[in-house]
Amino acid sequence: MFALDVAAHTGPWRVRHPGEKALLALGLLVCAVALPTWPGAALAGTAAALLLVGPARVPVPVLLRAARVPALFIATSAVPLLVSVHSPTRLSWNPAGVGTAATTTGRAAAALLCLLLFSATTPLSDVLPRLVRLGVPAAVTEVAALTYRMLFLLVDSVRAVREAQAARLGYRTWRTAYRSLSGQAGAIFVRAFTRARRLEEGLAVRGYTGSLAVQVEVRQLSPAFVVASVALLASIVALTAVSGGLWR
User: Fold this and answer.
1) Which of 15, 35, 60, 226 is deepest in the core (most CB within 10 A)?
2) What's the whole-number mean pLDDT along residues 172-177?
3) What are the pLDDT digits (tens) for 130-159?
4) Could you give the 3-state DSSP secondary structure of residue 127?
């Protein structure tokens, strides 16, 4: 499993209702996107980070590993805002873009932390069955579940093929590594396709008729958690309003 999925399944918030965590995380996300970057988005991102490492007890290395690719995307997306293009061969520093780059980067980082707050505490298996009850078509949730399952099959295939190649000294030199990587793509495709076919045959044997009936564990909403979440969101909006950010 991915480290983020392990944290979601083993964390202390695993027993909480997904609706509670969605209210908190998505509410913070709305604050990060709708409110001004300072102090609204900054407060939302800080609250999400403190909740992740505090009550949710998500390991910091797991968070850093999950956020490194999105953070790199945020950083590279901010670079074009710092330069001006005068011609195809002439670039210059754009002082006016510093504020825009800082605002965009801060808002995106805060939104990323809010999304990690939900994904690192809520397994997808708890979310998808409940989406059907909210009116989401069953076909959409089943495709999402099968795609999620296929990701694990793909990663498992990559790991198995790479270990087999490494055991045969397939990465001893640059030449052998290049040859191993070129053959790895074909082997992974065949292996993943075969396992996908076996999954389809298994569903057919079990009488699959177009819908997957799964048992959903009953979880009760915690009034205290809901009230605390609403109070936190209201305090962020109030602090932003007091600082004058809502009227800028």
Assistant:
1) 35
2) 76
3) 777 777 777 777 777 777 777 777 777 778
4) helix
**3-class secondary structure, 20:** helix
| Rounded Cα gap, residues 83 and 120, in angstroms | 36
Quote the DSSP letter at residue 38: I
The torsion region of residue 193 among left (phi > 0), alpha (psi -120 to 50) and beta comes to alpha
- DSSP-assigned beta bridge partners for residue 83: 93
86 or 77, higher pLDDT: 77
**90-93 and 83-87 strand pairing:** antiparallel
Instruction: Report the pLDDT value the prediction gives residue 27, as an integer from 0 to 100.
Output: 92
Helical H runs in the chain? 3-10, 18-34, 42-53, 60-78, 97-119, 124-133, 138-167, 174-205, 223-242
Cis peptide before 39 (omega within 30 of 0): yes
